[in-house]
Amino acid sequence: MIRMVAGRLALSIPLVLIVTAVVFVLMNALPGNAASAILGTNATPEAIESLTRELGLDQPVWAQYWTWLSGVLQGDLGVSIFNNEPVTDLVNARFGVTLLLLVGALGVAIVAGVSVGVLTARRQGWVSRVIDVLAIAGFAVPAFWLALLLIYLFAVQLALLPATGYVPFLDDPLEWYYSLVLPVLALAAGMITSLAKQTRDSMLEVLASPYVTALRANGIRERSVVFKHALRNAAIPIVTVVGVLFVGSLTGAVVIESIFVLPGLGTTVVTATAQRDIPVILGAALYLTLLVVAINILTDLAYGWLNPKVRAR
Amino acid sequence: MTLDSLSRTDSPTTTPPRRPDRPRRAFARRLLRSGSGAFSVSLLVLLVLACAGAAWLAPYDPLQNDLAHVLEGPSAAHLLGTDTVGRDVLSRLLFVGQPTFLGVAEALAVALLIGVPAGTVAGYFGGWFDAVISRVADIGMAIPAIVVLLMALAVFGQNQHAAMITLGVLFTPGLTRVARAAALATRNELYVAAARVAGLGHIRVMVRHILPRITNPIVVRSALLAGTALLVQSGLGFLGLGVSPPAPTWGGMVSEGSTVLQEQPWLIVPSGGVIAVTVLAFILLGDALRDAAQGGRSGLGTAGRRLGAAPQTVAGTVAGEAAPEPVPNAVLEVRDLTVELPLAAGWTTVVDGVSFSVGPGETLALVGESGCGKTVTALSVLGLIPGGGRIARGSVDFGGTDLATADPSRLAALRGSEIAFISQEPMVSLDPSFTVGNQLVESIRTHEGGSTAAARIRMIELLTLVGLPEPEAVAAKYPHQISGGMAQRVVIARALAGRPSLLIADEPTTALDATVQAGILELLRSLQRELGMAMILVTHDWGVVADIATRAVVMYAGQAVEYAAVEDVFTRPAHPYTFGLLQADPHLAVEGQRIRTIEGTVPPPPSWPVGCRFAGRCFLRTDACDASPIPLTVTGDARRARCLHTDRILQTTGAIS
Question: What is the pLDDT of residue B311?
Fold first, then answer.
């Protein structure tokens, strides 16, 4: 168990380094001066020179990266090229909303997906086939399109929920809740269907196992067989899928935030990309990569907690 | 990007063990014959051709504004309506499809060009090549794709090629893993080894022998990656990244539509729809490719069809059948039990008119090879027929209740408290996720109620009863931490928790070491003596029968073929199958004499013959054996056999003993 987490951490350090180093490698792969490419054709020579210095483009690539990295270790992520705001402040202020969206969607997906999966494992038939179809549809239908349909239905037609925008919890808890319903649902939809399918499949596998037959044959109540024994064992592969889904949902979150105009890291990073604001993108990349690392470690811990064979080691 | 979750559950598909003569053509035929395969292939071909031929097919110039007709719905003039400046949506979709498909192709090409060689090398050479490549792939799998994509877009400006090439690189680790798994599976095969011994260089072996075999899993994976690439590209296009406005991607068209969602919601339908349908086609294609690849591997499809064509066995009581008399005061009396399972051929009889009874304190053995219906018979008594089967005929009388017709709640209440069950493999009949103690306490509380503390005391009592020293220590362990013999004792303790009057043991010692077997049998015998339980023992092991059974029912192909007291079975078997089984048993073999096994195998239920089911393997077979169903006949005091040649077999066995 400890060895497993340690192994994960050992892989995480190169992960963080690789993801953040990518941008430096790419900048140096760009033909000509990256600073002038970034600032465009109308930039003054002074501006280009200042950006070159700021990004350290006059130094070799490893030195550029080292300068950035040593700043990070002191909590300094540099300043935005666009408005000179410190990146650390910017990213800190935006990270919460993104985390809220991701965790909210994941929570909804786990509750809904696992419930539907367990129910359909118990009762085969047309519901099960509907799940199969929805699992494929949930993957094929782009999250941003589903979000637009939700906006059209609940905000434009029924006027039940706000179409876009975000209200901080402390300003108005109810409005805060309303502002999150649609984004969370839009992001969760695809995860719900694939979790329901995964849950159903692993429940069916466990329910067909010899120990379930043995439990039933010895009179253990059906409720305990399904919800204690089968679900606990089926949860082991589900946890792995949850981890993968969470990492995958980062892409969706970036798009969803932009549609619903949520002040999160996703909108920040999209704006920064359009403005080619490298320091901001790097800061956001660092946070999101650390989030992935955290999720992988949590997944490992949950896996070990559920699986006594792993825990013992 | 939830693709990984979908495809990872399929696990990397490995390649078939044998090498079909013309793999390609057969594969393509299978692919196109399946509904989803034909649908997805034709749809994708149609879409790609339509987009490629946009210049000729499109009804309008995609950039021609028509401010008199903006935001129109579908009409005869504009099949998919018009957009914000009156451009024809259909024409735009077709033209925009070109960069869209091109981007998908770019991403896929990059992933294939890096992933396939890397994976093949890792799988083929193994060693540190594999260690390094696999480790890098592991790290790569954890990279949040969107972050890297946005970095690339920021550095290279709004360049779609840069984004899609980067996406291809991000796909590489997953593809590498698939290629590696497939190459690894192929590497150890004989013809690859032979090619290497024959002096072919590594490169030629990889290109000529490994690559063709890893193609299937790679192609399956590529279909799914194409779907993902389209989704990611659409997402970026929707965000306005990686494209310049007059020539957007499909995702960019959805984005344009979203700005007028209130005025004309239709506008997001064609663009979003074509994305969803194309991704759907890629997924279905992936599924169909996988199925086609597997179809070539196992040939299960044709076997299933043959099964379906087989004539159904006519189930019914055989004329002249002399069913055995029940024992006095029987605890359990099974009469004419007939069980059907829903197989490929439809409802198929797997247990056919079996009758037996067990008296208090008695042990009845159900003997036969695997596939004869012993376990199904035993589980039917508990109402736990595997595979969704049903009791088609007959009765199971237990203390005045017919378990064959009793409602599920009555059956559930009986299980464990009146009739308990010990299954074949102790290691897999305990829930791996809970401690031994937890499971025993649950069993005890289910049957007796009471506090956890009281149940723990009873648990220690039971663990001691089944001969486990240090019961406290055993209770704290998980099933994987104890030995098979210990696990079987725990399973027996659990079966005893409800103080049952009948214990059904399905091959209780088969999975155990010989030394442990004797201990478990001794335990069962002493428990039975102490507690006065009746016992049904399912086994194929004559040693076990001789050890603890009082009477035996020999089963063959779903029927009881012989009933006898244990002494009679061993000394004077009355059915050639029983005789053959005894001859084949190593425990009973005479030293220096060759063990004679019965040739052939038990026929599966759908192909049971009309006449004697054992005829095909019998040395006494005559034409009469195949003519009609053979009834059970009386062959002695409380003895029955299902054979036309009982006299001859009794002569033979009498001569031997």
Answer: 40
Q: What is the chain A residue with the closest CA to B239? A: A255
Q: Is residue B17 part of a domain?
A: no
Residues B506 and B495 in one domain: no
Domain boundary among B276, B294, B312: B294
Cα–Cα distances in Å, from B599 out to B212, B314, B625?
40, 26, 18
Bridge partners for B338 per DSSP: B393
Q: Is the same domain home to B533 and B387?
A: yes
Q: How many CB pairs under 8 A join A and B?
A: 259
Evaluate whether residue B306 is within a structural domain. no
What sign for the dihedral angle of Cα B487, B492, B495, B496? negative
Asked if residue B188 and residue B107 are part of one domain, the reply reads yes
Compute the CA torsion angle B494, B499, B501, B504 (nearest 10 deg): 0
Q: Band of the pLDDT at B309, cuts 50, 70, 90?
A: very low
Taking the domains of chain A in order of start, what are their residue ranges?
2-73, 87-311
As a whole number, the mean pLDDT across chain B is: 83
Residue of A nearest to B273 (CA): A141
Q: Which residues of A touch B269 (CB under 8 A)?
A: none
Let me know whether B345 and B457 are in one domain.
Answer: no
- Mean pLDDT to the nearest integer, B269-296: 84
Asked if residue B18 is part of any domain, the answer here is: no
For the CA atoms of B582, B588, B590, B593, the dihedral, rounded to the nearest 10 degrees, stands at 50
For domain A87-311, the CATH superfamily is MetI-like (1.10.3720.10)
Q: Residue A172, SS3?
A: coil
Find the residue in B nearest to A199 (Cα).
Answer: B9
Instruction: Indicate yes or no: CB of B428 within 8 angstroms of CB of A209.
Output: yes
Chain B residues in contact with A251 by the CB 8 A cut-off are 1, 145-146, 232, 235
> For the domain that residue B412 is a member of, what is the CATH number?
3.40.50.300
One domain for residues B459 and B537:
no
Interface of B with A in 540-579 (CB under 8 A): none
Range of the domain at B600: 332-418+500-650
**Chain A: residue nearest B244 by CA?**
A274
Asked if B383 and B403 count as a contact pair (C-beta separation under 8 A), the reply is: yes
- In angstroms, how far is the first alpha carbon of chain A from the final one? 6
**DSSP string across B119-165:** HHHHHHH-HHHHHHHHHHHHHHHTS-HHHHHHHHHHHH-S-HHHHHH
Q: B190 falls in which pLDDT band (50, 70, 90)? A: confident
Considering the domain architecture, whether residues B453 and B505 belong to the same structural domain is answered as no
| Same domain for B508 and B479 | no
Quote the minimal CA–CA distance from B641 to chain A in Å: 31
Determine the residue among B3, B6, B376 to mutate to test chain A binding: the one whose Cβ has the most chain A Cβ atoms within 10 Å.
Answer: B6
Q: Which residues of chain A have pLDDT under 70?
A: 32-33, 124, 312-313
Q: The pTM is what?
A: 0.81
How many domains is chain B built from?
3
Residues of A in contact with B421 (CB under 8 A): 214, 217-218
Q: What is the pLDDT of residues B64-80, one digit of tens each?
A: 777 777 777 788 777 88
Token pair of B621 as six digits: 């077979």
What would the mean pLDDT of B469-491 be, rounded to a whole number? Answer: 91
Q: Do B154 and A144 touch (CB under 8 A)?
A: no
Across the interface, whether the CB atoms of A218 and B416 are under 8 A apart is answered yes
What percent of chain B has a predicted confidence (pLDDT) above 70? 91
Mean pLDDT of B407-433: 88
Per-residue pLDDT reduced to its tens digit, B331-368? 999 999 999 988 877 888 999 989 999 999 899 999 98
Report CA-CA distances (Å) from A236 to A246, B432, B614.
Answer: 16, 12, 46
Q: Point out the domain boundary residue: B499, B524, B547.
A: B499
Give the ipTM of the model, two decimals please: 0.88
Contacts of A254 in chain B (CB under 8 A): 146, 150, 235, 239
Which pLDDT value is given to residue B299? Answer: 34
